[in-house]
């Protein structure tokens, strides 16, 4: 018996000696080999798989988008199920963002599979060369565990589901922004807080429904656009007289789709290259707006010049070649070298496809002045005429401004609106409450007076032979 123990003792001692010698000659390979064997042994008994999603990733240790999406995804279910939370204020939102507390574990069920999420952190190793004492930094990460029989499901479906849902939550929670490029070659932004919606927008109901349907089809059309091989973007041209609600419609679109707005001031863009740069800086889920496109640049000049060359009449050609005088306040545009082809490229070129889910909106008061190439379908897919105020539109404004849906004066207003061209802006101004003592009836009567005087103006114009009925009426408001 004693002999056996002696043999065992010397055996163990020899093994240890061998181990130390091996460690001395193969310090790295041995540790790695042992770790691998122990992992294999563990995985043989442990049926679970583990994923980590670190907060910072990549060479430059950028904040990982996946981490943000997982955080948003879990914050949605956190508020229902977790018991301890971390509360943060989002970067660009006033809403508190809940995330799971340090020792919390959340279960999630997906297509019959159960997974577990937890938020963890590990200390970052201090650089040995650092001579001063830095505080211990911890890197956070999400830890996902699940049974290995769900491996395919988690990798192929569940993770994409989490990222998709998480991004959607981020979009809903964020404070939407209104960007502009004035006085800078970069976008600056302010919170977008315009209250206009399709409910408050005054226009014929059928037209409104058609536009809403079009926007919904666009928003849900990612797969469709991919199938037909078209970049996921859509162009709208809004045209009509001043005050018919073009800008109001853009705000309603942005509120409906939950998109940001990039209000592009073309006169502030110095070159086509800068225009492209600005485009690349825009994000998805946004509306890029160019207001009053006909005034922004002399976009038709290069095409017209080509046509003029072939004209026979030299005198007329000289006259046409003379640069048109710039409207007051627009002298700056001379500095801009954006050309029509630069703009066409911006709308339709290869770069325009990057990012996807963008709507482009041009507005103009003079659609006839625009180059056909600029507004052809494919660039400006949907042309929307913003009309003068009809009775249907008036009813929306009356409800907005006076809270009245039916009134005996409405009949008179309906008849007058059929004869007079008046913009929704002018109707809204007549209905607006400007002092406490003006009641609803007085405001409606005020509108009737305005409509009657507009009608008289039109009739006078027709009698003098100067009014074709197409000119804008000067509305003299009688308060
Ligand atoms: N269709 C409309 N529905 C609701 N409000 C409207 C409508 N049209 C005009 N308004 C009111 O009139 C004001 C001016 O409208 P808006 O700025 O949208 O006109 P616009 O067509 O963009 O004019 P412009 O061509 O001069 O830019 C808005 O603030 C809004 O209150
Ligand atoms: Mg406008």
Automatic annotation (TrEMBL):
<dbReference type="Pfam" id="PF00004">
    <property type="entry name" value="AAA"/>
</dbReference>
<feature type="compositionally biased region" description="Acidic residues">
    <location>
        <begin position="469"/>
        <end position="479"/>
    </location>
</feature>
<dbReference type="InterPro" id="IPR003960">
    <property type="entry name" value="ATPase_AAA_CS"/>
</dbReference>
<dbReference type="InterPro" id="IPR050747">
    <property type="entry name" value="Mitochondrial_chaperone_BCS1"/>
</dbReference>
<feature type="region of interest" description="Disordered">
    <location>
        <begin position="306"/>
        <end position="334"/>
    </location>
</feature>
<dbReference type="InterPro" id="IPR025753">
    <property type="entry name" value="AAA_N_dom"/>
</dbReference>
<feature type="compositionally biased region" description="Basic and acidic residues">
    <location>
        <begin position="310"/>
        <end position="321"/>
    </location>
</feature>
<comment type="similarity">
    <text>Belongs to the AAA ATPase family. BCS1 subfamily.</text>
</comment>
<dbReference type="InterPro" id="IPR003959">
    <property type="entry name" value="ATPase_AAA_core"/>
</dbReference>
<keyword id="KW-0547">Nucleotide-binding</keyword>
<dbReference type="Pfam" id="PF14363">
    <property type="entry name" value="AAA_assoc"/>
</dbReference>
<dbReference type="GO" id="GO:0006950">
    <property type="term" value="P:response to stress"/>
</dbReference>
<dbReference type="GO" id="GO:0016887">
    <property type="term" value="F:ATP hydrolysis activity"/>
</dbReference>
<feature type="region of interest" description="Disordered">
    <location>
        <begin position="457"/>
        <end position="479"/>
    </location>
</feature>
<feature type="domain" description="AAA+ ATPase">
    <location>
        <begin position="232"/>
        <end position="390"/>
    </location>
</feature>
<dbReference type="Pfam" id="PF25568">
    <property type="entry name" value="AAA_lid_At3g28540"/>
</dbReference>
<dbReference type="InterPro" id="IPR058017">
    <property type="entry name" value="At3g28540-like_C"/>
</dbReference>
<dbReference type="InterPro" id="IPR003593">
    <property type="entry name" value="AAA+_ATPase"/>
</dbReference>
<dbReference type="InterPro" id="IPR027417">
    <property type="entry name" value="P-loop_NTPase"/>
</dbReference>
<protein>
    <submittedName>
        <fullName>AAA-ATPase At3g28580-like</fullName>
    </submittedName>
</protein>
<keyword id="KW-0460">Magnesium</keyword>
<dbReference type="GO" id="GO:0005524">
    <property type="term" value="F:ATP binding"/>
</dbReference>
<keyword id="KW-0067">ATP-binding</keyword>
């Amino acid at each position: 018996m004693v002999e056996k123990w002696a043999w065992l003792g010397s055996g163990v001692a020899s093994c240890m000696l061998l181990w130390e010698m091996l460690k001395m000659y193969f310090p790295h390979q041995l540790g790695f080999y042992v770790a691998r064997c122990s992992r294999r042994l563990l995985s043989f008994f442990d049926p679970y798989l583990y994923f980590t999603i670190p907060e910072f990733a990549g060479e430059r240790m950028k904040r990982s988008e996946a981490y943000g999406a997982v955080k948003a995804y879990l914050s949605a279910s956190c508020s229902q199920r977790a018991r301890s939370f971390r509360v943060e204020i989002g970067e660009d939102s006033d809403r508190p963002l809940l995330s799971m507390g340090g020792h919390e574990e959340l279960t999630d069920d997906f297509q019959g599979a159960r997974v577990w999420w937890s938020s963890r952190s590990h200390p970052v190793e201090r650089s040995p060369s650092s001579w001063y004492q830095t505080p211990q930094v911890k890197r956070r990460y999400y830890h996902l565990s699940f049974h290995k029989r769900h491996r395919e499901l988690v990798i192929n479906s569940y993770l994409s589901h989490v990222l998709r849902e998480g991004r959607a939550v981020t979009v809903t929670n964020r404070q939407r922004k209104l960007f502009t490029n004035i006085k800078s070659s970069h976008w600056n932004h302010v919170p977008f807080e315009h209250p206009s919606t399709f409910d408050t927008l005054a226009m014929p109901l059928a037209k409104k429904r058609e536009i809403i349907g079009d926007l919904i089809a666009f928003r849900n059309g990612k797969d469709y656009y991919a199938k037909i091989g078209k970049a996921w973007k859509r162009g709208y041209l809004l045209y009509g007289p001043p005050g018919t609600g073009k800008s109001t419609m853009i705000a309603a679109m942005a509120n409906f789709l939950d998109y940001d707005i990039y209000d592009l001031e073309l006169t502030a863009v110095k070159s086509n290259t800068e225009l492209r740069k600005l485009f690349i800086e825009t994000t998805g889920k946004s509306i890029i707006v160019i207001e009053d496109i006909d005034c922004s640049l002399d976009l038709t000049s290069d095409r017209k010049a080509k046509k003029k060359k072939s004209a026979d009449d030299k005198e007329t050609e000289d006259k046409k070649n003379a640069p048109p005088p710039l409207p007051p306040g627009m002298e700056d545009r001379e500095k801009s070298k954006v050309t029509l082809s630069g703009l066409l490229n911006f709308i339709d070129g290869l770069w325009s496809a990057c990012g996807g889910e963008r709507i482009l909106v041009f507005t103009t008061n003079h659609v006839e002045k625009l180059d056909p190439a600029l507004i052809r379908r494919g660039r400006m897919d949907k042309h929307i005429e913003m009309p003068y105020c009809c009775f249907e539109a008036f009813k929306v404004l009356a409800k907005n401004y006076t809270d009245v849906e039916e009134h005996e004066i409405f009949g008179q207003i309906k008849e007058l609106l059929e004869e007079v061209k008046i913009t929704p802006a002018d109707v809204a101004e007549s209905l607006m409450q400007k002092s406490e003592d003006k009641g609803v009836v007085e405001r409606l009567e005020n509108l009737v007076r305005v409509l009657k005087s507009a009608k008289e103006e039109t009739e006078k114009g027709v009698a003098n032979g100067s009014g074709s009925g197409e000119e804008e009426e000067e509305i003299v408001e009688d308060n």
